[in-house]
Amino acid sequence: MSNDLNIDVRAYPIENPQGSTVAFASVTFCVGDTPINAINSIRVVEGEKGAFVTMPQTTDRNGDFQDVAFPVMKGLRGNMSKAILTELDAVINAGLTGSTNEPHFHFGGKLPGDGAGEVSVEANVNPIRNPRGNTMAFGSVTFKIDDKPFSVVEGVRVVNSAENGLFVTMPQSQDKNGEYHDIAFPVMKGLRGQVTEAVLESYDRAVSERSADRSDSFSNRIAAGKDKSEEYKQGAAQKPDPAKAAAKKAAGLGD
Length: 255
Known about the structure:
It contains three helices and 15 strands. It has helices at 76-93, 191-238, 242-250; strands at residues 5-13, 21-31, 34-47, 50-54, 57-59, 65-67, 69-71, 105-109, 119-127, 135-145, 148-161, 165-169, 172-174, 180-182, 184-186. The strands form four sheets. Strands 1, 2, 3, 4, 8 and 15 form a six-stranded antiparallel beta sheet that branches. The termini are far apart.
């Protein structure tokens, strides 16, 4: 297999759909046949203009839907959607309840640059100002090939455990049995460790920067207070004393 960015696709049609969702799917992005990262909980939705693919989503504080994991490399999202619908048709035409276990590769796109396929990770983490539970921060992870972004995962958490200290969790969903499963996650050997390292480094950096900002702000407030105090002292020294002025006037000395 060529060293392109390929997509291993699995599709699972719903036997008797009660709504617009007619199937679920999962994808694994691969360099050649080497898996890099996977995304589950993808939906195939039947709309007025036919079937289309939606990425796993969550709602923000305003009630708006936001993608949790999604491809960002040019052309990759379109190729992924096409691959999912093609795989779903193949499953339905074969009379199966879902894709078989062997890989089902579809073309994702040409690798950027020289096509070496070197995988790296970039993290962006925002600490919670006043955490009330054990979640200390939320962030995102960008997976890169040859330093070019191809896939993003939002909703990554930094969690503080009394037993194990800080650790990183990927975004999760709950199944009908109440079990939690990762929605998107790294699968290449050693890549989860890279994700954890990148996320915790970003967290430490953000906490340090915030502490420095608070220190600067506190120092500025102290300096401003000292300036106000000096202004008050100087003003008080220059202001005439009413008692002394009255005494001088009574003595006929004037001002």
